[in-house]
Amino acid sequence: MAPRLGKVTVLSALDDAHLADVTTSEASLRRFLHGLPGVDEVGAEARAAGLSTRSIKTTAKQFAIDLAISMIDLTTLEGQDTPGKVRALCAKALRPDPTDRDVPRVAAVCVYPDLVGVAAEALAGSGVKVASVATGFPSGRTSLAVKEADTREAVAAGADEVDMVIDRGAFLAGHYRQVFDEIATVKQAAGAAHLKVILETGELATYDNVRRASWLAMLAGADFVKTSTGKVSPAATLPVTLVMLEAVRDFRDASGRQVGVKPAGGIRTSKDAIKYLVVVNETAGEDWLDPDWFRIGASSLLNDLLMQRQKLATGRYAGPDYFTLD
């Protein structure tokens, strides 16, 4: 009953104060965000735990593995990244298993802004998106002018998607209008590129803050809300993702606009990925079971999905050196 009551409360709030009115001032934004229904922490964790135990039949597992592969943002965000490493990652994105053409391509390759041009050239015409972190990743502690310039440069170099990180210090201090303005400015700078807003949920402390930050990002124009940079622990968790999925579901009911969700960091096995797909289906619904609306930020997950896929097809696992290491 809790999610249903929460949805009614949110919709009632928006009936009284239209979306445009909510963001007119710091006071109205604060009033709206703090008027959102509180998250039942015990209930959210219990529901996520229950959904994670769902039994998946073999045929459904085959479908889920291919769907998960198609949702991956294959990621390398290390100081030692080189153009050669990015080209190799792009080749894997295009042909995850060179011996099996039926394996779907991943959704995107995510790199630092200075390597966007390399990825864009390698993926040109393939349909695999180029995503780039920007805006002072991973801390978000830089000026708005730098964040805007960072975004414009990434898009000019060929980024189809920009993953921006919010200033958690500003959010936790209650400076909601500052965070809103930064997201809206970066959204404008991104132009036609999709904007994924990273909340860094491991630093937000409470599920209530996760819900508020999700709504704040969506009100400011986010195309996706994303859990984590992968640089902070904990990163993605099932309960946090469930709360974010409830938020995007309720936001679409209220506004008519659909927003995607991207958990990132710590999702390493096929079993983990399938748990997330179950939570998506049971919380937001089938409309979000699509790479356009759900992504998984990962580097090592793809190999495990490929191993499990081959196990289902042949009855045996590939050797440890069968697939390339990322």
TrEMBL record:
Swiss-Prot/TrEMBL keywords: Lyase, Schiff base
Protein EC: 4.1.2.4
Domain of life: Bacteria
A GO CC term attached to the entry: cytoplasm
Reactions listed under catalytic activity: 2-deoxy-D-ribose 5-phosphate = D-glyceraldehyde 3-phosphate + acetaldehyde
Pathway as given in its UniProt record: Carbohydrate degradation; 2-deoxy-D-ribose 1-phosphate degradation; D-glyceraldehyde 3-phosphate and acetaldehyde from 2-deoxy-alpha-D-ribose 1-phosphate: step 2/2
Record has Ribonucleoprotein as a keyword: no
GO terms assigned for molecular function: deoxyribose-phosphate aldolase activity
Pfam families noted in UniProt: DeoC
SMART domains: DeoC
Enzyme class: lyase
InterPro entries tied to this protein: Aldolase_TIM, DeoC, DeoC/FbaB/LacD_aldolase
Family (UniProt): Belongs to the DeoC/FbaB aldolase family. DeoC type 2 subfamily.
The protein's name in its UniProt record: Deoxyribose-phosphate aldolase
Taxonomic lineage: Bacteria, Bacillati, Actinomycetota, Actinomycetes, Jiangellales
